[in-house]
Amino acid sequence: MKEKQTAILMLADGSVYHGTAIGKIGTTAGEICFNTGMTGYQEIYTDPSYHGQIIVNTVSHIGNYGTVSTETESSEVRIKGLVVKSFSQTHSRTTAEESLQDYLDKSNIVGIADLDTRQLVRHIREKGAMNAIISSEVSNVEELKARLEETPNMEGLELSSLVTTTEPYFVGNPHASKKVAVLDIGVKKSILDNLAKRDVYCKVFPAKTSFEDMKKWHADGYFISNGPGDPAVMEYAVDTVKEILEENKPLFGICLGHQILSRASGLSTYKMHNGHRGCNHPVKNLQTGLCEVTSQNHGFAVSKESVEGLENVEVTHINLNDDTIEGIKRTDKPAFSVQYHPESSPGPHDSRYLFDDFVKLMEQN
């Protein structure tokens, strides 16, 4: 085992933390945020919604079960950096293909371990989301501060075009009973798998595909995916969703897709003080009165004030921790969306009924 190397984490407010290097030796910067999930670290790191972000895992031990190729949500690791408390260089799962250290190293991910993540998370919760820099090669704090100041803020960033597919591709059975056109603004693999398991054939389109080109496939419904960045600067996607709504075709959106449908419906979005990231967020379904424990990953939300007075938008789900909007539906169109992740990879399966609701909506239209 290699001798441990020191590393530094610096936040935009000047806070400095010292620890040991993990992953690739180097320097990286991005928005720092924390995920409270107890498991599923590989799925988290490969989720395109985390593009441009440094992840703090709040669970104490990371790396103890290694990595396997089947537990990825996209073609590569998407996070910019990693912060953990206790990092395991060894793993015990017999089906693991390699250690997390080797996985991060090959993916060029710079990280830091052996610091007090509990104190760090409390600090981020109080001060709010901010940029940070990790380095295992530069020890000069002033140099790191200068590099950090050059890092763009997440608010105002369009990132979906950096993670989307470059060419259309298909998922599922070509002879399935339903066809769904997927607008890939950062889609997770497990979302497509959940659709395919429900006898849906998906064609996944690049983020900036025009509605006219998507329409040529004659889909039964349209899906707007999750993804990274600020929905307020994604007019290309908002315009596409507006055209889908005009066609009265069934539409389902998740996470960023929920925000895009909301903006296409006249609602506004805002940057949250701290986003929702983890597998234990309680959400109330206002239509059934039931609570769902949900998996979430977002730093932007839909404004509650902007819903007031709109007769064609109904709030369907709310977050029981902070009362933020977690779901909407159009009362005049066959369209609905949720802020959280019903595919829940990782996470509980309370919300997978939403995929069934989407299939039923296509059957009714």
From TrEMBL:
Pathway: Amino-acid biosynthesis; L-arginine biosynthesis; carbamoyl phosphate from bicarbonate: step 1/1; Pyrimidine metabolism; UMP biosynthesis via de novo pathway; (S)-dihydroorotate from bicarbonate: step 1/3. L-glutamine binds at residues 49, 227, 229, 256, 259, 297, 299-300. Its EC number is 6.3.5.5. It catalyses: L-glutamine + H2O = L-glutamate + NH4(+); hydrogencarbonate + L-glutamine + 2 ATP + H2O = carbamoyl phosphate + L-glutamate + 2 ADP + phosphate + 2 H(+). PROSITE patterns: GATASE_TYPE_1. It is an enzyme of class 6 (ligase). Keywords: Amino-acid biosynthesis, Arginine biosynthesis, ATP-binding, Glutamine amidotransferase, Ligase, Nucleotide-binding, Pyrimidine biosynthesis. One of its GO terms (molecular function) is glutaminase activity. Small subunit of the glutamine-dependent carbamoyl phosphate synthetase (CPSase). CPSase catalyzes the formation of carbamoyl phosphate from the ammonia moiety of glutamine, carbonate, and phosphate donated by ATP, constituting the first step of 2 biosynthetic pathways, one leading to arginine and/or urea and the other to pyrimidine nucleotides. The small subunit (glutamine amidotransferase) binds and cleaves glutamine to supply the large subunit with the substrate ammonia. Residues 5-135 form the Carbamoyl-phosphate synthase small subunit N-terminal domain. One of its GO terms (biological process) is 'de novo' pyrimidine nucleobase biosynthetic process. Composed of two chains; the small (or glutamine) chain promotes the hydrolysis of glutamine to ammonia, which is used by the large (or ammonia) chain to synthesize carbamoyl phosphate. Tetramer of heterodimers (alpha,beta)4. SMART domains: CPSase_sm_chain (SM01097). Residues 1-178 are annotated as: CPSase. PANTHER family: CARBAMOYL-PHOSPHATE SYNTHASE SMALL CHAIN, MULTIFUNCTIONAL TRYPTOPHAN BIOSYNTHESIS PROTEIN-RELATED. The active site is at 255 (nucleophile), 341, 343. Belongs to the CarA family. This is Carbamoyl phosphate synthase small chain. InterPro entries: Anth_synth/Amidotransfase, CarbamoylP_synth_ssu, CarbamoylP_synth_ssu_N, CarbP_synth_ssu_N_sf, Class_I_gatase-like, CPSase_GATase1, GATASE.
